[in-house]
Amino acid sequence: MAYNCLEIDNDDRVQIIRLARPEALNAFNKELMDELTEALKAADADPKVACIVLTGSEKAFAAGADIKEMADKSFVQAYTEDFITANWEEASRIRTPIIAAVAGYALGGGCEMAMMCDFVIAADNAKFGQPEITIGAIPGAGGTQRMAKYIGKAKAMDMCLTGRMMGAEEAERCGLVARVVPKAELMDTALEAAKKIAGFSRPISMMVKECVNRAFEVPLSEGIRFERRVFHSVFATEDQKEGMKAFVEKRDPNFKDA
Ligand code: CO8
């Protein structure tokens, strides 16, 4: 499928999805959101894709929801369309691991989209924020919830109530991002991590993702029970047999996604 606001590339088992609406710093309008949902679902359904890298430009991952597009919406429109959540939640339903490679601005919906990915690798020029309060709104795609869970109440309140931006170093310090690298190395680092993941068994990496995400949904005892049941189920896969056999035989495993 041809996209107007996305560039898609494939490197081995890694699908690279680049937000490409430079005239608006990749702000999410309906067209971009519809295309992104479509591209993520297509990658997720493709058995040849074992990891996704979502990225933007050097200046902006995404500067949020498109303010010009939503400025005149009425409450009834927003409510009846279930504005935003309807297809925004799709991104968090993708089962293939997704790395967000973030350079420049990740603000509002851009920060929320980065938090919906499985982990963030940030360039040293990245800036994260939930500035909705500065335009008379609040985060609407999980920002208050995910940020509070991921970096704690103090930082989440600070970010959402003041609308300030947080640089990459602070974001790494507080656990919002996994790694910070020089801007020029962002894509190489993200691709290296993605290829590492894609080199493992696809069903097993999906299980890992599902288990880690479970930690945010249920109490610890239930999460541990869930993890143990999934752990038991790996013994039903050929890839577990191959992985452990390869270790014993001191060779590299040859996973088959089976
Ligand atoms: N929406 C629409 N257009 C935007 C947006 C945006 N969020 N951000 C930037 N643009 C446009 C600008 O209007 C400008 O267009 P034009 O040249 O036609 O005037 C162009 O992008 C370049 O922007 P600037 O000239 O402002 O660039 P600067 O380098 O001076 O500033 C900033 C960059 C600081 C990022 C600045 O553009 C800015 O503050 N942007 C808005 C950030 C913001 O408030 N984001 C939150 C939006 S609300 C939101 O995300 C709610 C989330 C709800 C869930 C998700 C729903 C999809």
TrEMBL record:
Keywords: Fatty acid metabolism, Lipid metabolism, Lyase. The keyword Lyase applies. One of its GO terms (molecular function) is enoyl-CoA hydratase activity. It holds the Pfam family ECH_1. InterPro entries: ClpP/crotonase-like_dom_sf (IPR029045), Enoyl-CoA_hyd/isom_CS (IPR018376), Enoyl-CoA_hydra/iso (IPR001753), Enoyl-CoA_hydra_C (IPR014748). Its EC number is 4.2.1.17. It catalyses: a (3S)-3-hydroxyacyl-CoA = a (2E)-enoyl-CoA + H2O; a 4-saturated-(3S)-3-hydroxyacyl-CoA = a (3E)-enoyl-CoA + H2O. SUPFAM superfamilies: ClpP/crotonase. GO terms for biological process: fatty acid beta-oxidation. Could possibly oxidize fatty acids using specific components. Belongs to the enoyl-CoA hydratase/isomerase family. This is enoyl-CoA hydratase.
